[in-house]
Amino acid sequence: MQLRELSVTGAWEITPRQISDDRGVFHEAFTDPAFREMTGHRFDLAQVNVSVSGEGVLRGLHYAEVPPGQAKYVLCPSGTVFDVVVDVRVGSPTFGEW
To answer: Among residues of the chain, what percentage have pLDDT more than 70?
Structure first.
């Protein structure tokens, strides 16, 4: 898994490791030890949601205070997604950026 820190402090883009063979493709979407090593942060998984949307669908803004709210992991297994992260944390060095 590869990690790239985004312009918003505390947000990362994760590129899963992909293994292809004659059977198809296997994605290792997330590994906790690698994430902790690369970011210095924990990502304790408590819930997994799956949403399948049609072309051109816009889903709403989701807000969470972290901690103690939710961290979010967005995965697009096929097609494309335009996911926007906005920093609404007052006092954050990247407040208001997206």
So the answer is: 95
| Spatial separation of the C-alpha atoms in residues 44 and 80, rounded to whole Å | 26
Question: Which domains, and CATH codes, for the chain?
Answer: 1-44+61-92 (2.60.120.10)
Tell me the Cα Rg of the chain: 15
What does 8-55 look like in DSSP terms, one character per residue? STT-EEEE-EEEEETTEEEEE---HHHHHHHHS--------------T
DSSP tag of 93: T
pTM above 0.90, yes or no: no
Give CA 66 to chain center in angstroms. Answer: 14
State the Cα torsion 13-72-88-81 to the nearest 10°. 60
